[in-house]
Write a structure and sequence with these properties.
binds flavin-adenine dinucleotide, 2 domains, Rossmann fold, 5 helices, six-stranded parallel beta sheet, Elongation Factor Tu (Ef-tu), domain 3, six-stranded antiparallel beta sheet, 12 strands, 235 residues, alpha/beta
Length: 235
């Protein structure tokens, strides 16, 4: 599918938690993409663009974007300023950070690791694998965030947990309050503790560059073939 410019309209916008916003863009025609792909939004009159992963499954005429506006650059300010009904120019859909169905025959488990809004494409890939493709091996998401007040989509993760025994979800906070009952630290600390059949694991990493470099190293040391590690760097 060749990427093309499409004009959409903001249908819905919600602050999920902290600096994280969900923006739904509707189109007059059906849009098609593969879970994991991203869109490129025109964020100013000069034609500057910013990339945002599609955070929803292909479902007809709309896409959801999950945006952390904390960088507060042009893209963040554009997203913050959007109102329901505003027009948006979207170039879509881009990227090869998708799950190749051919690899699923051999895979025993699939590990997804995200920091922050890097969870956006991973959630759709996980939902596609479990609800649509009925992948029966283990699917695990390790998600790193900073504070409790930034958290969102926990109910959504619980729902996937309820629906699939083969889904595991580890949330890890780097700067929680004293009484945080969950994991404290970084995603690498969690991945380090995992034991599984690493040679038959596929890994999909999304978020900050440092995390991707660290996890990639960790996985290769554990015996995951380099060709089975896929990533999307946000910054
Ligand atoms: C393929 C791809 C998909 C992306 N998908 C998403 C997405 O789904 N949701 C999303 O929120 N962002 C996503 N990003 C990041 C996004 O494109 C922008 O880089 C981000 O919104 C910052 O843009 P800005 O214009 O506000 O800040 P800029 O002026 O471009 O950057 C300001 C500073 O913030 C740093 N920075 C950039 N992104 C982040 C971040 N997420 N957290 C902390 N610091 C950051 C930059 O390195 C820079 O130093 C994606 C990036 C890529 C390459």
């Amino acid at each position: 599918m060749t990427p093309k410019k499409i004009i959409g309209k903001v249908e819905f916008k919600e602050n999920l938690a902290g600096k994280n916003w969900l923006v739904r863009i509707g189109f007059s025609e059906e849009v098609n993409f593969i879970p994991g792909q991203y869109s490129s939004l025109k964020v100013n009159e000069a034609g500057l663009r910013r990339s945002y992963s599609v955070a929803s499954l292909p479902n007809g005429k709309s896409i959801d974007l999950l945006v952390d506006v904390s960088p507060m650059g042009i893209g963040s300010r554009f997203i913050l300023g959007l109102k329901v009904g505003d027009e948006v120019e979207v170039l879509g859909f881009l990227g090869r950070f998708t799950v190749d169905s051919n690899l699923l025959f051999e895979a025993k488990s699939i590990l997804f690791v995200a920091t922050g809004t890097g969870v956006a494409p991973l959630k759709t890939m996980i939902e596609d694998l479990l609800y649509n493709k009925r992948f029966a091996g283990e699917v695990r998401l390790v998600w790193g965030m900073r504070h409790e007040e930034d958290l969102y989509w926990l109910k959504e993760m619980e729902n996937i947990n309820r629906d699939f025994d083969n889904f595991r979800f580890d949330l890890v906070l780097s700067k929680p309050k004293e009484d945080w009952p969950g994991f404290k630290g970084h995603v690498t600390d969690v991945v380090r503790t995992l034991s599984q059949n690493w040679s038959q694991t596929l890994a999909y990493l999304c978020g900050a560059k440092e995390m991707i470099i660290e996890i990639n190293k960790e996985l290769i040391a554990k015996g995951v073939p380099e060709t089975q590690v896929f990533y999307e760097k946000y910054f």
